[in-house]
Design a protein that fits this description.
Blueprint (H helix, E strand, L loop, with lengths): L2 H6 L5 E2 H8 L6 H12 L5 H4 L4 E2 L1 H13 L5 H5 L2 E3 L2 E3 L13 H8 L7 E5 L5 H7 L6 E6 L2 H14 L4 E4 L4 H5 L6 E4 L13 H6 L2 H4 L2 H4 L1 H13 L7 E5 L5 H11 L4 E6 L5 E7 L1
Parallel strand pairs: 5-6, 5-8, 6-7, 8-9
Antiparallel strand pairs: 1-2, 3-4, 9-11, 10-11
The structure holds S-adenosylmethionine.
């Protein structure tokens, strides 16, 4: 059947099973089908098995088809203005990067750490996803977040209000707001932009929709790590126990190690892998 005709043929009395028979083959990425079902019905992929013969109403099917069409050019999270991160449903739009699952590993590491840290700072905060997940599960005396993009910070503020996260919001270039105000972190999380602008592996949907300021960095994507190591002792309280967690691109481990060794910093650098066993973030401690 030709696709246009099929879309027009929206009918009532559908079940999930009939919807699946009708549309699943149209999805290049079959997971997108289940993402849509989750958004519309709140059913996970495994829930779908028990709900196969449950009703899927006319309005729900129309919503489903509209989102399917939108998905051809935009990520679902921007179409529905929500993204899940560490179990939190966050507001997102084109002003911020869509939080990625591998970034949750930084949060997990912090929450498994029994040490106490008085001042927590999240730099390159974007939607505020990392800061919210950490701040709402661990006690701090003071929390700061920073980003260069005032547009991104507007989104972060929406999420901080939703989750009642008490963070002081700073706008400025990377570590500068901290240096200017002499803020020294005991715990610092950073997910900086780290992709080389010419990287041919960036998916078209990502390049066309997500903020370039959130994706790309100079020096083959390494610019922020150099700045971090150069300024570490100005933004971290090294007189006490500290921890810095920072995400990076999966091919950047060796370069980061070299930048760190060249910096001569007398601290411990520990690399961690992600769910796909790619090197994904580092932890710097004293
Ligand atoms: C990879 S995104 C991370 C967003 C969020 N923390 C997350 O994990 O989803 C990088 C963020 O860094 C911000 N950014 C880019 N350049 C920056 C700079 N020079 N100083 C501060 N923030 C910057 C972007 O606006 C974006 O919000």
């Amino acid at each position: 059947m030709n696709r246009k005709k099929k879309w027009k043929n929206i009918s009532n009395n559908n079940t999930l099973l009939s919807l699946k028979n009708k549309y699943l083959d149209e999805f290049e990425n079959k997971n997108d089908f289940y993402e849509l079902i989750f958004y519309i019905k709140g059913w996970t992929k495994s829930d779908c098995i028990i709900h196969e013969i449950d009703t899927f109403g006319l309005e729900e099917e129309e919503k489903f088809v509209a989102l399917f069409e939108g998905l051809k050019t935009k990520p679902l999270q921007y179409l529905v203005n929500e993204a899940f991160f560490f179990g939190n449903k966050l507001f997102v739009d084109e002003r911020v990067l869509i939080p990625r699952r591998e970034t949750e590993l930084l949060v997990e590491n912090v929450l498994n750490d029994k040490n106490e840290y008085a001042t927590y700072v999240d730099v390159c905060t974007g939607s505020g996803c990392i800061a919210i997940a950490i701040a709402n599960s661990k006690k701090f005396e003071k929390i700061y977040v920073a980003d260069i993009s005032s547009e991104a910070l507007e989104v972060a503020k929406i999420n901080f209000a939703t989750f009642d996260t008490k963070a002081e919001v700073l706008q400025g270039d990377f570590l500068e707001p901290l240096i200017k105000q002499n803020i020294k972190a005991n715990l610092l999380t950073i997910n900086p932009p780290y992709i080389d602008e010419s990287d041919p592996n960036v998916e078209e949907k990502v390049r066309n929709n997500e903020p370039h300021i959130a994706l790309f960095a100079e020096d083959s994507g390494l610019a922020f790590y150099k700045k971090l190591f150069d300024n570490l002792e100005s933004v971290v309280d090294t007189s006490q126990k500290f921890k810095v967690l920072c995400e990076f691109g999966f091919k950047q481990k060796n370069e980061i190690k070299k930048i760190f060794l060249d910096s001569g910093l007398p601290y411990k650098l520990n690399f961690q892998r992600d769910y796909s066993t790619h090197w994904r973030y580092f932890i710097l401690t004293n």
